[in-house]
Amino acid sequence: MMDCLYAKCIPCITDCVMAELEKLGPKYRIALRVARDPRFERLPCMHKGTYADDCLVQRVSQHKCYIVATCDRDLKRRIRKIPGIPIMYISKRRYTIERLPEAYGAPA
């Protein structure tokens, strides 16, 4: 991810995303192991339920400082409706970033 962005970044994961990964069972155990990495920052959730998509959409609507990384088509469709939120996903075995401003963090 850092090689793709050419910058230091801190991957963050919300409590409800972790809960959703745990519910998905053994098929997603590798994703769960990656998400439990101590280098990932855990973001606490204060809402009821564990539907991660609603939580992520609400969080990026309030704080427009995130890049959302997902391969979920429905979530990408919902995030595209929020102006100014870049989306990172894997396409053809490569990281792709959509809607990242050209001069984002670059010296003028």
TrEMBL record:
CDD domains, from UniProt? PIN_Fcf1-like (cd09864)
State any GO CC term: small-subunit processome
Sorted keywords for this record are: Nucleus, Ribosome biogenesis, rRNA processing
Localization recorded for this chain is:
Nucleus, Nucleolus
> What is a biological process (GO) this protein takes part in?
rRNA processing
- Predominant subcellular localization, coarse grouping: nucleus
Is Cell division a UniProt keyword of this protein? no
Q: Which PANTHER family does the record cross-reference, listed alphabetically?
A: RRNA-PROCESSING PROTEIN UTP23 HOMOLOG (PTHR12416)
What's the protein called, per UniProt? Fcf1p
